[in-house]
Amino acid sequence: MFGMASVLITGTSVGIGMETALELARGGHRVYATMRSPERSPELGAIVAAEGLPVTIHVLDVDSDASVAEAIGGIYASGGEIDVLVNNAGVERMGTVEEAPLDHFRLCMETNYFGAIRCIQAVLPKMRERGSGVIVNVTSVAGRIASGSMTPYVASKFAFEALSECLAQEVKAMGIRVAIVEPGIIDTRMAQNVTKVDVESKYPQGRRMSALFVEALKMGNGPSIIAKKVREVIENEDWTLRHPTGPDAAPFLGWRAGMTDEAWVNYGAQSDEEWLEQVGRDFGMTPKLL
């Protein structure tokens, strides 16, 4: 079992990041909870103060080289250690290849991909020198299932998955463990945003994805599911790379793996009527398209 650790988590203002900070702190770990604007997100601080948890909140914008260097450098300069890095910060932007602005692709890549790289590069030298450490990358089943209309987000998560595989190979011999936690559809602000339909789109896939998320979110799978998995991954010295998490994560991945690439393209390209019939057949869902 992994002992009590000092853990830096990105994106802790809401959702999975906040729940992970609380889960780990309540389990006795020392948590550096980071977020872009703590003054705009007081909830975590209030809970930490009320419960007396071992959490300090730090300003860290993963989009900024300077912010990452200042935050992580400041922790080291004060005598702190970072045994575990949890790359959780993320943004979502929906849209098709034709319709999504390039800025949406850049935003997702900057936060979801380059932001993680900034943090990894900041902590790796000391982990390497010490010969130990854990890096947990929170990706998504969308990093392995390319769904039309989620293109900017999906592309960034596919890239993050590939980065994680490369990193795991590079650092294992140094005693550094890399794990990928892949949430399914979890009730977060990000997932709620997916339910908002772009009525101006010329493509049907966005309406379908929104309807699917509406149905899936009725199951009430909250971010604490992911927080518990992150804690389990950290505490159990298990070198398993991928951890699909949430009731629908493994089924979604198995469903996609059961199709050829051509069958997957046909699934996304079919008519609304055919899509509704297949979703009902495969998942027992009856989403309502707008």
Describe the structure.
By secondary structure, this protein is α/β, with parallel strands linked by helices. It has a single domain (6-186, 223-261), classed as NAD(P)-binding Rossmann-like Domain (Rossmann fold, 3-Layer(aba) Sandwich). It has helices spanning 15-26, 43-51, 65-77, 102-130, 151-171, 189-194, 205-217, 224-235, 249-257, 261-269, 272-283; strands at residues 6-9, 30-35, 55-59, 84-87, 133-138, 176-183, 242-245. It has a 7-stranded parallel beta sheet with strand order 3-2-1-4-5-6-7, with helices on both faces. Helix 3 (65-77) packs parallel to helix 4 (102-130) and helix 4 (102-130) runs parallel beside helix 5. The N and C termini lie far apart (50 Å). The model has no long low-confidence stretch (mean pLDDT 96).
CATH top-level class = Alpha Beta
- Alpha carbon gyration radius: 19 Å
Taken from the alpha-carbon principal axes, the silhouette is globular
Category by helix and strand content? alpha/beta
How much helical structure, as a percent, in the residues?
40-55%
Architecture per CATH nomenclature, i.e. the level-2 architecture: 3-Layer(aba) Sandwich
SSE order, as H and E? EHEHEHEHEHEHHHEHHH
Count of domain modules: 1
Layout of helices and strands:
Layout: E1 6-9, H1 15-26, E2 30-35, H2 43-51, E3 55-59, H3 65-77, E4 84-87, H4 102-130, E5 133-138, H5 151-171, E6 176-183, H6 189-194, H7 205-217, H8 224-235, E7 242-245, H9 249-257, H10 261-269, H11 272-283
Parallel strand pairs: 1-2, 1-4, 2-3, 4-5, 5-6, 6-7
Helix pairs in contact: 1-8, 3-4, 4-5
